[in-house]
Amino acid sequence: MRVPLSWLAEYVDLEPGTTPEDVHAALVSVGLEEEAIHRFELSGPIVVGQVLEYVDEPQSNGKTIRWCQVRVAPEGVDTAADGGPAVHGIVCGAHNFITGDKVVVTLPGSVLPGPFPIAARTTYGHVSDGMIASARELGLGEEHDGILRLTTLGLDPEVGADAISLLGLDDAAVEINVTPDRGYAFSIRGVAREYSHATGADFRDPALAVPPITVASEFPVTIDDQAPVRGHVGATVFVTRVVRGVDPTRPTPAWMIARLKLAGIRSISLVVDITNYVMLELGQPVHGYDLDKLSGGITVRRAGAGEKLTTLDDVTRTLSAEDLLITDDSGPIGLAGVMGGATTEIGDGTTNVLVEAANFDPVSIARTARRHKLPSEASKRFERGVDPSVAVVAAARVVQLLVELAGGVADDLGSLHDATPEVQPIDLPLGFISGLIGLEYTRDEVRESLAEIGASLTETPTGLAVTPPSWRPDLTDKWTLAEEVARIVGYDRIPSVLPVAPPGRGLTRTQTLRRTVANTLASSGHTEVLAYPFVSEKANDLFGAASVVAGAARAGVPQVRVANPLDGEAPFLRTSILPGLLQIAHRNRSRGLTDLAVFEMGTVFRPVAGVEYGAAVVPPGAVRPSAELEAELNAGIPPQPLSVGVVFTGNAVRHQPGQPPIAAGWTDAIAAVRQVALATGVSIEVRQGAHQAMHPGRTAELFVTTDAGEQVVGYAGELLPTVAHEFDLPSVVGVAELDLSAVMAEAGRLITATPIETMPAATQDLSLVVDAAVPAGDVLAAVIDGGGALLERADLVDDYRGTGVPAGKKSLTFALRFRAHDRTLTAAEASDAKLAGVAAAAERFGATLRE
Predict the structure, then answer these.
(1) Nearest to residue 91, comparing CAs of 64, 112, 113, 61?
(2) How far is CA 303 from CA 363, 421, 650, in A?
(3) What span, in angstroms and rounded, lies between the C-alpha atoms of 173 and 37?
């Protein structure tokens, strides 16, 4: 809301020398946030001039200019405001003036908005000593077809007078941010009242200064709302008044144009400007109809199926059954509270005007404005709540201005429909506000603060019965009343006290493990990101669960579809972290970040096939659900385990002198899994696996050993190249995903420390030849099982396929370490244990020693 200071000063006293910054500071103290300060960015000397004579001079470029002699000082005065002569020679390209017209002259040394400094300059063979200005050049509007003739504004000032003050261009406006609960501040009336609260200055309510209008004959109006939204009737107040003999071609006064401009509204025509002016003044949107274009009376109703309306912006709109309409016998003539219709628009031929001021249901207006993408100054006020008692005053004020400025005559034809529900008093117990705010307020402070905002007070045995004023629909309970008292008395009275943290046990075990995992990955060079949890059905099917056999036909995984998705192409909740991470990797690479190691920790949604989710009854927010209802609500939620995923692209080690680049890949994904295992203290085992989204042979299945046996908790490896290309990623992408909930369930088990061995170890190498399809991890497990208690450690150190190894075979080399707890092993004992491992591998996989 923009508030011109000259307008504000009409309803509340501003101390001499008050600046826009002072007004902002006062309004901030009562909770109205400052936004900006608006001024007409110009400076003088800018004066009233009179065209004495001119000569039309055609130019070689086809343009005709006028060489004008313009008086810029009063008769009998030889010196103008710029120190120059009383008559200036000025070149002008406009032709919409005649000799004797009074115009606005910007003399040398002045500055117009832009900034555009004015100086004497040689042009078209003359020295142009200033400029005759148009409305747009002065910042008054968009009119630029010709210069501004003061007679068109109804002005006949003295030559040489200061045009800045004459046109109201020396005014300024403060802009404030109006929150949704304080719609009354969308008016000069409301802001003046708030300024009075802040400074103690006397407030003069403009609604009390408008003389009432007598209605002798009834204009037919019917409120027929058969389908109210939320049970609220669309219109509770509907006022009409008639003004006849209006001259819509009369100019809008300069002071009104300047105020509207500072308030952010352009001047359109006198009648429209008056309705906009009253809306800004009182906060009540007002609409004017060409009475002669109306067919019969007015009916307020909901739209019917298939109805259409052409609004004032010349757009034909298909209406919804929820839209509230203004209609006559011909059909819809306006979207109530949003925008009028084109059929009854006021034009230059309008002589009789029907003025309408109404109070519409905020929810209905808000939905209509959003449905049709048609925000307007009217809807912005209605959807926040308009004072229902001001509609009659606003209609009378418009009639008053139409009579004064447009030459109209007030008719006794009109109507008043008022079904405003009575405001119920709010019980405010003694001491409640002090207990809530934490500051002791006296009884007088509470009473005076509530009376100051316009509330009616009645003493009760327990405290006060407070009836909020009609312009404050946001005051609905004792808590909002407490906020008003704190605001009016002053927020600066409330002490700043840090709350004392209650004693507790700190973070839960789950919270601690989550933070530990995140900190471990972040400290080792991974960047944490946050992706949207909404994905496509195809992405869920691909990543949500692995096939038992790679490449096998599989049914789609169970998924949860969002009822109102943000993106129609991604309407499902994710069953895997990886699709979102891959989208983030794609977005980063498109911006030149090619070396990525990103991770996300979050919930995934994995419904059980055949189970129906969703509660049949949703309890109101103000009522605590019973234990049975809480159990039902929980049963309607699909399992949401915590998952962590990582994605690697580009280089893990960048190229540098003496160091070739090292590409990121599946080894980095396995390393990240091992870091999670270290952070949680859980032993996560790795073995060859298969996943339809990952590269065959470069996929690891991750599992933990529980009391119930082995449990698969995730997958790691290299993304399938075709899948990587679908995300516009390079062919090699390392990925891993862990069911962190399952991993954390195993965390915290008793860990037995391994004693430090004092006996010397015996080391040997073992090379076995097996079929290429046999997983190396399975061979290693067989060697460990066969090696027995003397085998302390076994590691795979080489996987060779080539010369010396038969086709279809591979050579696996293991580094073995043997040790006894109580003696030094002999070479023979170590060899026997190694051969026992060879025997186990041979029995299981047909392994043979490589010669």
Answers:
(1) 64
(2) 16, 25, 59
(3) 6
Q: Which residue bears the tokens 């403009």? A: 206
Give the residue carrying structure tokens 């103290």: 29
Contacts for 466-471: CB closer than 8 Å, 24+ residues apart: 466/425, 466/426, 466/427, 466/428, 467/423, 467/424, 467/425, 467/426, 468/423, 468/426, 470/387, 470/388, 470/389, 470/390, 470/420, 470/423, 471/184, 471/190, 471/283, 471/387, 471/389, 471/390
Residues 6+ apart with CB under 8 A from 95: 56, 64, 66, 146
Helices within 305-385 (DSSP H only)? 362-371, 377-382
Give the span between the Cα atoms of 228 and 235, in whole angstroms: 10
What structural domains does the chain harbor? 2-40+172-204 (3.30.56.10), 46-166 (2.40.50.140), 217-418 (3.50.40.10), 426-489 (3.30.56.10), 510-606+641-746 (3.30.930.10), 762-849 (3.30.70.380)
3-state secondary structure labels for all residues of 413-464: EEEEEECCCCCCCEEEECCHHHHHHCCCCCHHHHHHHHHHCCCEEEEECCEE
642 neighbors 602 (Cβ within 8 angstroms): yes
Give me 431's structure tokens: 């001491």
Please give the Cα distance from 490 to 29 (Å, whole number): 7
Q: 793-804 burial by CB neighbour count: b if 16+ within 10 A, else e? A: ebeeeeeeeeee
**How many Cα neighbours within 13 Å face the side chain of 627?**
0
- Radius of gyration for the alpha carbons in the chain, expressed in angstroms and rounded: 41
Cα 814 to Cα 796: distance, rounded to the nearest angstrom: 5
Asked if 781 and 768 count as a contact pair (C-beta separation under 8 A), the reply is no
Give pLDDT, residue 13: 92
H/E element, 20: helix 20-29
Nearest-angstrom CA–CA distance, 67 and 127: 10
3-state secondary structure of 513: helix
The pTM of the full predicted model, rounded to 2 decimals, is 0.65
CA distance readout (Å), 621 to 473, 474, 475, 618, 625: 21, 19, 20, 9, 9
For helices 443-452 and 478-489, give the axis angle rounded to 10 degrees: 90
b/e 616-634 (16+ beta carbons within 10 angstroms → b): eeeeeeeeeeeeeeeeebe
Edge-to-edge strand list for the sheet holding 791-800: 791-800, 809-818, 762-771, 848-849
Bridging pattern class, strands 221-224 and 298-302: parallel
- pLDDT at residue 498 tops 70: yes
Strand, coil or helix: 508: coil
Give the Cα separation of 521 and 675 in Å (integer).
7
Q: Are 812 and 779 in contact (CB under 8 A)?
A: yes
Q: Are 260 and 141 within 8 A, CB to CB? A: no
**Residue 16: how many other CB atoms lie within 10 Å:** 4
Write out the H or E segment, with its range, that includes residue 173. strand 172-177
Mutual angle of helices 270-282 and 254-262, in 10-degree steps: 50
Q: How does pLDDT run across 737-760, given as a tens digit for each residue?
A: 999 999 999 887 766 777 888 899
Checking if the pLDDT of 457 tops 70, the result is: yes
CB 794 within 8 A of CB 780: yes
319-332 pLDDT, tens digit each: 988 899 999 999 99
| 73's tokens | 């000082």
788: left (phi over 0), alpha (psi -120 to 50) or beta: left
d(CA 680, CA 515): 10
Is the model's pLDDT at 278 over the cut of 90?
yes
Instruction: Please give the structure tokens belonging to residue 341.
Output: 């219709």
Confidence of residue 286 (pLDDT cuts 50, 70, 90): very high
Q: 135 and 251 in contact (C-beta within 8 Å)?
A: no
Give strand ranges (E) for 59-114.
64-71, 87-92, 102-106, 111-112
